[in-house]
Batch of 4 targets.
Target 1
Amino acid sequence: MQVGIIGAGLAGSILYKLLSEHGFYIDIYDHVLVRGCKSMGLIFSNKNEILAVKKVFKILNIDIQDYVLKEIGEVNISGDAYFPNKKIYIINKSKLIEDLVPRTIVTNREFNPVIRRYTTKVIDTGIIVREFCTEAETKFYDLVVDASGNTKVLQLGNVHTKYKNDIRTCQFLIACDQNSSEKFDKFFIDEIKIHKGKPLIGYTWIAPIGDGLYHVGCAYYRNGHELWEYLKRYVKRMFDSDYKRVCGCSSRINGNLISESFVGGVYERRCVASVGESMGLTTPLGHGNVYAIISAYILSKSISKYELDEAVLKYKDYMLKKFEKLDKDKKAVKSFNLLRITRLFKEYYNIPTHESMKIMLKSLY
Ligand SMILES: Cc1cc2nc3c(=O)[nH]c(=O)nc-3n(C[C@H](O)[C@H](O)[C@H](O)COP(=O)(O)OP(=O)(O)OC[C@H]3O[C@@H](n4cnc5c(N)ncnc54)[C@H](O)[C@@H]3O)c2cc1C
């Protein structure tokens, strides 16, 4: 079987490794070979997720401890300390990805085979369907996988609909001296904002990654320039000018619902599927690393168990059911459903309900 994976991020790399074990011929594409540090948190929302990720790592002969930079015990949210009952690791994600798929294996190119390749039409029954038109570039592959993260190369729509729910982010890696290091030796979440009608919650964070280094960033529904200016001011205020900026970059996080995204299908005998963030596998807080790993595993398992056509269709059905809760949570944020959002804060960071209420009222734009 020949497979084309678009994107050598976390989901694409895990999938590459898992499918390689079956002896498939695989091309993996990425136009960016610099493995940046844009996201380093592995945040597990329940025990099943920990078990699933451990299982995947065991199959791949990887010890998660080799990549853990820090285990977070305390989270400071808007000035108050909380002690989550969940596992939160800060990991060296770029090293993990490089170990899974060294950049020498990756075909260095931007691969956009299917943008504009869908046609939307109304069939006899009145239902709107999307059709995938194959193309010379991909015809050699039995399976094409969208692992392009926020770029969502296989997703339907024009630029506006594709990105309308995405939140913008901007982040710095900073180094600072010993005194500040002690003060910030926990995970900080600050300036929480819930944006009316939007599925993701905005906030600013400081994540300690050891050796006096901090990953500082923010995610809001604002324009890029405003974010940079805001983050510069924030870092200055928090670290008292006592730091050195090592690097910085900006990005987006996919806030689209899974049920409105392209998950998988068979078109003209070509199988197509999405994994990770490209299909909207993010929580309302923008976390997607755990789901990138789990989705790649589920797809590989389905492929090893069934004929390819059936595998992709089963994968699609299964994913829509399994991750239904993520969609519900995002819809709850969009409609400012107080009850569900407080439950969410409790689930992730163990924030008591009355405290969550305060945070939420403060957070509304
Ligand atoms: C600033 C920031 C902080 C975050 N923090 C956290 C966190 O703490 N915890 C957490 O769980 N999640 C976090 N996330 C989300 C998390 O990073 C993603 O959900 C996760 O990386 C998704 O993995 P992925 O493999 O699906 O996509 P990605 O990791 O984004 O990988 C996609 C890859 O595809 C490549 N690509 C894109 N388009 C093309 C193309 N046309 N052709 C070829 N290659 C292409 C990209 O270069 C990239 O390497 C954060 C995201 C951001 C932006």
Note: The domain at 167-251+346-363 is CATH 3.30.70 (Alpha-Beta Plaits).
Target 2
Amino acid sequence: MQQVSPMATRYDGPTIWFHWAVACLVLVQWLLAQVIDWFPLGMPRIEARSVHISLGLFLGVLLLARGVWRATRGRVLLPADRGALQILAKAVHYTLYVLLIAMVAVGLFLVWVRGDSFFGLFTVPAFDPGNKALRHNIEELHGTIATIILILAGLHAAASLIHHYLWHDNVLRRMLPSSN
Ligand code: HEM
Ligand code: HEM
């Protein structure tokens, strides 16, 4: 059962840790994806792509653990906004979760469609080899979801900064690690 804690002034430690770990991973994944093609063809590029795939899998595990924690012992605080803003904030949070899960699912399918090698240790047998259109479409989809996540997370971060610097409330602080 979720534990609603109106009196608590901040999220619990694991929730805060999950939030910032996921946010950093998304950023690292996006940056890494931009430079994979800078690596020479062959093992260097396979290794760079394999790091992206490994961190992507780790992101999937983190999301799962975050979901279990939130549904069981994680602290759920009262909404930071009221009315339409509250609905908007909730919609953005849930959309981010859905897009992150989609990102991992499409990423896994992309590995399968491309028939990628994993650090040269083994190669995933390609789904429908030679189907260039499918490969192109899945790559586009993966890239598009990444762009939408970045835009939405950027707006979400901006909203939390507005809370902090313009409205001077506790919303950002309750998601920051405690200094004591
Ligand atoms: C939030 C997490 C992720 C972000 C932000 C991200 C971002 C990206 C971006 C922007 C690209 C370039 C797409 C394009 O060329 O249009 C890419 C490529 C790719 N991604 Fe991800 N990705 C994530 C997670 C994953 C996961 C979970 C997997 C698989 C388990 C994965 C596997 C791949 C592969 C195989 C490529 C192709 C790399 C290449 O072109 O050599 N990604 N990713
Ligand atoms: C890719 C980056 C990010 C993602 C995917 C993300 C995702 C989320 C999600 C899903 C929640 C809802 C938590 C829950 O109730 O389960 C949340 C809450 C929050 N996020 Fe982020 N976030 C990101 C980056 C940021 C950044 C950069 C900031 C600040 C500058 C930030 C500040 C906050 C705050 C303050 C909350 C708590 C809001 C409240 O209590 O209502 N987030 N984030």
Note: The first strand starts at residue 3 and ends at 4.
Target 3
Amino acid sequence: MRYTLNINGKSILAERGETLVDAALMGKILIPHDCATGHCETCRVNVPYGSVDTAGTAYGNTVLACRSRVVGDATITFETAPELQKVVGKVHSIAELSDKVVEVCVQIAAPLHYRPGQYAKVQFAGFPAREYSFAAKMDQEDSDELVVFQVKKLRQGRVSTALGDRIKVGHRVRLQGPFGNAFLRDAETGPLVLASSGTGFAPIWSLSKALVKSRHRRNLTIVTGLNSPADMYMLPAFRWLADHGEKNVTIVSREMASGLIRKGTPDQHLPDLDQTTSVHVAGNPNLVERVKQKALAVNAHCYADPFTPSQNRMSLWDRLPVWPFS
Ligand code: FES
């Protein structure tokens, strides 16, 4: 049986039971996707009209297009992001932001277009690929020739422990991206809440810096969670935001309150949300889930990629040899 899907204004016929991604491809429409297994959130789309079999992926009126299947006529919309690209580059700088977080700048051989809030797959030559959110420079202006990542140092991290050691300035890098669905929507104009914990601050910083540079008129609130006050590596970012008129920043720590830092977790310090609010959240998966549920309860829009990009641990796969770039 065939049904009509209207995808971003273009109507196509689709077979019952096809995934939305496959149906769209048959109609020569590319819904951005990556894992195709329901994990990465890159393929999340809106279904404002009609019905689809959501396969348990519904959040508000959004679904994952790689899992959801055609069961009737439906309208599907999604905001476009830059197409997938592959570029090579080399490490331009490695700087310790704290004893737990390293800023890595990669000089790229060709422009890599992405939207703040998205992430890339990054492979240092001789090491397994990792997923890191695009960040922004902490203390300088950004450059189109550089992409910036904030990497959490893990005691057993095969990549993070090599940064500054076996991976030095000049090390070759491959990048693939952009991925992810948690980027700013141009059409949204309501209040914006950006919440993070740990190195989930990387995409939040990228989003907030881009927003400020766009001379926005939105009501921006940033809530940043730390494990302990000693983890506040993002102070230069907060200074930059304050210098540009963004003072609605709350810093919280589970451990204790001190000075500017309030006690608690970011979800406990969110402002009032309503259906006009957009929330972006990144970091600890439990925090992401709690914030998503709070947003869902009042029909606020919530965008989150379901992982902490720079916290990948060594897997069995990682223990296998990795060939250097040719
Ligand atoms: S492509 Fe659908 S969740 Fe990854």
Note: The helical segments are 20-26, 201-213, 235-243, 285-297.
Target 4
Amino acid sequence: MASVKENLLRAAELTESDSPRLDLEVLLCHLLGKSRAWLYTWPEHELEPEQQAAFDRLFERRIAGEPVAHLTGNREFWSLPLKVNRSTLIPRPDTEVLVEAVLELRPQESLRALDLGTGTGAIALALATEKPHWQLLAVDKMPAAVALAEENRQQLGLANVQVRQSDWFDGVPPQHFDVIVSNPPYIDAQDPHLREGDVRFEPRSALVADEQGLADIRQIAAQARSYLAADGLLLVEHGWQQADAVAELLGTRGFEQVQSWRDLGGQQRVTGGQWRG
Ligand SMILES: C[S@@+](CC[C@H](N)C(=O)[O-])C[C@H]1O[C@@H](n2cnc3c(N)ncnc32)[C@H](O)[C@@H]1O
């Protein structure tokens, strides 16, 4: 058995993590049902034997590289508590840039939007929270991801989002959306980053795409044209070296006012354009 403070000192052993101390704080908060402020207030608090045993197990899994979000089963996105699991991507803060860009470009209170490859539902649920009168359709190819997004939707009580299974547009009934967004798979299969960090525990179905990572974005851009209203907006997230390629493929498919947005690290990670109709 050890105190809160002693358990947090074990952060020194988490040499592969970028945020070892924070990782252990999050795991302790999850296990004890307390806030980080509580941990700072009660550093000498001793864990009960079963709590200590549970923490030791989580610690070993974290040492083995498992993402903190998989250990706790949740991750915050756009200040929304979302359930996560191994069926899809753990939502990343960088994706909030896409949400911000949509809200900046389309301030209106009423429109129809589609989120392709919704995963946990992160993007669609963030937009639905900000815009209660938007009607959103959120689709994913993986049944387990669809179930997860629906669970998150219900937990947040968002009635303006519909979640359904679809291989990109295949299961989307013909209609015209004002906004189509996607954070699709865009990593090349040979990319060495696939062997590092959290992505080792995330499914390839959420990460990898053919054609140097651009195959899914190409397909989405080509098909989106039939599903966009006049002046409808398409915005996609992509890798930090793909902005020029995505801008070009949108331009050659007839999208106008193509522009990119930078993520929190200053890289161009979201590109979009308007469909002239
Ligand atoms: C990078 S993850 C993004 C998840 C979520 N939108 C986010 O931003 O956190 C890509 C998602 O696309 C889904 N996906 C992959 N191929 C698909 C396809 N052909 N049709 C629909 N969804 C697909 C994956 O299952 C995964 O949930």
Note: The pocket of S-adenosylmethionine is lined by residues 88-89, 91, 95, 116-120, 122-123, 139-142, 145, 166-168, 183-185, 205-206 (CB under 6 Å).
